[in-house]
From TrEMBL:
Lineage of producing organism: Bacteria, Pseudomonadati, Pseudomonadota, Gammaproteobacteria, Oceanospirillales
Gene3D superfamilies noted in UniProt: Aspartate Aminotransferase, domain 1, Type I PLP-dependent aspartate aminotransferase-like (Major domain)
Swiss-Prot/TrEMBL catalytic activity: (sulfur carrier)-H + L-cysteine = (sulfur carrier)-SH + L-alanine
Aminotransferase class V domain: residues covered: 25-391
Function description: Catalyzes the removal of elemental sulfur and selenium atoms from L-cysteine, L-cystine, L-selenocysteine, and L-selenocystine to produce L-alanine.
Cross-referenced InterPro entries: Aminotrans_V_dom (IPR000192), Aminotrans_V_PyrdxlP_BS (IPR020578), Cys_dSase_SufS (IPR010970), PyrdxlP-dep_Trfase (IPR015424), PyrdxlP-dep_Trfase_major (IPR015421), PyrdxlP-dep_Trfase_small (IPR015422)
EC number: 2.8.1.7
Alphabetical list of PROSITE patterns matching this protein: AA_TRANSFER_CLASS_5
Stretch forming the signal peptide: none
Membership in a protein family: Belongs to the class-V pyridoxal-phosphate-dependent aminotransferase family. Csd subfamily.
Cofactor(s) the record lists: pyridoxal 5'-phosphate
UniProt protein name: Cysteine desulfurase
């Protein structure tokens, strides 16, 4: 059965408000998605009926909060097809998760070792590795992928016996390219490298199976998959998590402390210092339940059809440079020679159309494309064909109005 986004609209009341007297057309989902009522209710219910610190008190509310909190870990393990719930570490988001790994693996790197990333990375999956390379004398190498996700010639030699860490995104946030992840992971594993997959742009669209992917680490943020901000996940295999040196220490992550020494706790607590974001964890589990209740293949096909519809319409227009591949899963990224991106953005905004203009935290990729930035429309489960058309109509009006040629 075809996916019907109109059935989901009532679950997202934020979308029914006007923006400057126009219907709000929210197409900035790659930055953050809106949250369904189930997520809002879960957070409110937690504060109304279950607020207490977890793992600490021996009282009614503390037990209730702890049960909900650990049940959420179970939900996430199931959502990602992780073998054990202790392999799920709560973080603030993808950025913090990548930093935890980059700091935690510092001790395995020696001068001359290599950290390999791709040319499509978000700064969150670039800067932590670059800084790690600076600290250790390791070399940061960049696997050149074309903007359509294909290999440039002679790629295999980038994976060498010096490759200690390979970290790559599943989907580019800036241009929507899907990377050849399984092939890359296989090559990295043949060299015995630690592997990290940045799933920030994938989890809202694709069902994820970390066991099948067989990566050492998988990271994402809750707010890009209908969950709250300030919560994300670091999944890791047991041995990979155990190798990490905790980059934060303090309460919760310890078993016994004396003035002379500290015995760290077991996983997952060993990597979770301090009072966690309990409401975020509970909200994120509700977002997973929301996504799991959808027909995921029909949802993905719907989102792809929206991206494809916009791509095809704009392709027919003259003067628009499309930077996304034609089969992009979830977004369309473009620029218009002779028209400033921020002017386009401002015009779209004045008509209630929310998109994103800029470099999308991917300066090296923008340089590869030869642009200073792009205008990005990104889709989610609640977007309709009418909204996709409205974006195209308003964009075309804006170009007519602003083109100074
Ligand atoms: N990786 C990718 C591919 C992203 O799109 C983003 C967010 N734009 C991040 C990492 C960082 O996510 P966060 O800011 O939520 O930590």
């Amino acid at each position: 059965m075809a996916f019907d986004p109109s059935l989901l609209r009532p679950l997202f009341p934020i979308l029914s408000q006007p923006a400057y007297e126009h219907p709000l057309t929210y197409l900035d989902n790659a930055a953050t998605t809106q949250k369904p009522l189930a997520v809002l209710d879960a957070i409110q219910n937690y504060y109304r009926t279950g607020n207490a610190n977890v793992h600490r008190g021996a009282h009614f509310l503390s037990d209730r909060a702890t049960n909900q909190f650990e049940h959420a870990r179970h939900t996430l393990a199931h959502f990602l097809q992780a073998p054990e719930q202790s392999h799920i570490i709560w973080t603030k988001g993808a950025t913090e998760a990548i930093n935890m790994v980059a700091y935690g693996l510092e001790h395995v790197l020696a001068k001359g070792d290599e950290i390999l990333i791709t040319s499509l990375e978000h700064h969150a999956n670039l800067v932590p590795w670059q800084q790690l390379a600076f600290r250790t004398g390791a070399r940061l190498r960049v696997l050149p992928l074309t903007s359509s996700g294909e290999w440039e010639a002679e790629f295999a030699h980038y994976f060498s016996d010096r490759t200690r860490i390979f970290a790559a995104t599943q989907i580019s946030n800036a241009i929507g390219t899907t990377t050849p992840m399984q092939t890359m992971l296989d090559l990295a594993k043949q060299q015995g490298a630690f592997t990290l997959v940045d799933g920030a742009q994938a989890v809202a669209h694709y069902p994820v199976n970390v066991s099948e992917l067989d990566c050492d680490f998988y990271v994402f943020s809750g707010h890009k998959m209908y969950g709250p901000t300030g919560i994300g996940v670091l999944y890791g295999k047991q041995h990979a998590l155990e190798v990490l040196i905790p980059y934060q220490t303090g309460g919760e992550m310890v078993r016994h402390v004396s003035h002379q020494a500290t015995e760290f706790n077991v996983l997952p607590y060993r990597l979770e210092a301090g009072t966690p974001n309990i409401e975020g964890v509970i909200g994120l589990a509700a977002a997973c339940d929301f996504l799991s209740a959808q027909d995921r293949s029909a949802l993905l096909a719907w989102e792809q059809s929206l991206a494809h519809h916009v791509y095809t319409r704009l392709h027919k227009e003259g003067g628009i440079e499309l930077h996304s591949p034609e089969n992009s899963t979830t977004l369309v990224s473009l620029s218009v020679p002779n028209v400033h991106l921020l002017d386009l953005n401002a015009y779209l905004d004045s008509q209630g159309v929310a998109v994103r203009a800029g470099s999308h935290c991917a300066h090296p990729l923008m340089a590869q494309l030869g642009v200073s930035g792009t205008l990005r429309a990104s889709f989610a489960c609640y977007n309709t064909l009418k909204e996709a058309d409205r974006f195209c109509d308003v964009l075309i009006d804006a170009i007519d109005l602003l083109n100074d040629e």
